[in-house]
Each structure stands twice: as C-alpha cells, then as structure tokens.
C-alpha cells in the first residue's frame, strides 16, 4: 500500500465535465492499484463521499485511466484495507 495525502487530481467525467478530487491514498489489491478519492466541490466536512477508482496503466506513453469500481465484494475488500491503513496512520 502506498500512502499519498493532500494531492488534488482533476478527472473528466462521462459527460466531459472536469471534476476535482482530493487523492487520499493508493491501495494495491491482487495485482491492481486503486485510488481512494473524494470530490472537492459540493461536500461539507460531515458528508465526505469516498470514491474508489481502479488505475488502468496507460499503454505506449499514454496517461493512466481511471475506472469506477462497482463490484460490491471488491469495494468491501478495498474499504477494509483503507480503514486498516487509516488506523495504522492514527497510531
């Protein structure tokens, strides 16, 4: 697992709109990497909405792509790793 905090990333959604996210951490799971991010706009401190994106490495010098994760079992496993990492950081 790789820890990265306080970095902003701008992604383009399916409608072509740019959305700014705060990148919390990158987690490795079964040979793939997943970015845990929260959208910067539209949220207050009590309503953070964690988004999990699979990092798809770019081919032949292309930039990496990000895919939303929808598989519930995978999301549960990734969230458990995220919680474990956050608890380790609090110690």
Offer a concise description of the structure.
This protein is of the alpha+beta class.
Structure description:
- The chain has 91 residues and is of the alpha+beta class.
- The chain has one domain (2-90).
- 21% of the residues lie in helices and 45% in strands.
- The protein contains one helix and five strands.
- It has one helix at 72-90, and strands at 2-12, 18-29, 32-39, 51-56, 65-68.
- Strands 1-2-3-4-5 form a five-stranded antiparallel beta sheet, with helices on one face.
- Strand 2 and strand 3 (32-39) form a beta hairpin.
- The longest helix has 19 residues, at 72-90.
- It is globular.
What is the molecular shape? Answer: globular
Strand content: over 45%
Count the helices. How many?
A: 1
Major β-sheet strand ordering: 1-2-3-4-5
What's the gyration radius in Å? 14 Å
**Assembly type:** single chain
**What can be said about the biggest beta sheet?**
5 strands, antiparallel
Q: CA-to-CA gap between the ends? A: 17 Å
Low-confidence stretches: 1-5
- Judged by helices, strands and strand pairing, the structural class is alpha+beta
| Overall mean confidence score, pLDDT | 85
**Secondary-structure element pattern, one letter each:** EEEEEH
Helix content range: 10-25%
Q: Find the count of extended strands (DSSP E, 2+ residues).
A: 5
How many structural domains does the protein architecture include? 1
Provide the descriptors you would attach to this structure in a database record.
91 residues; alpha+beta; five-stranded antiparallel β-sheet; 1 helix; 5 strands; 21% helix
């Amino acid at each position: 697992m790789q820890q990265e905090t306080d970095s902003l990333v701008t992604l383009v959604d399916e409608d072509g709109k740019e959305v700014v996210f705060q990148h919390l951490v990158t987690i490795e799971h079964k040979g793939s990497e997943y970015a845990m991010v929260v959208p910067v706009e539209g949220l207050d401190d009590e309503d953070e909405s964690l988004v999990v994106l699979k990092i798809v490495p770019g081919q032949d010098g292309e930039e990496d792509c990000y895919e939303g994760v929808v598989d519930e079992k995978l999301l549960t496993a990734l969230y458990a790793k995220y919680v474990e990492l956050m608890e380790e950081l609090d110690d």
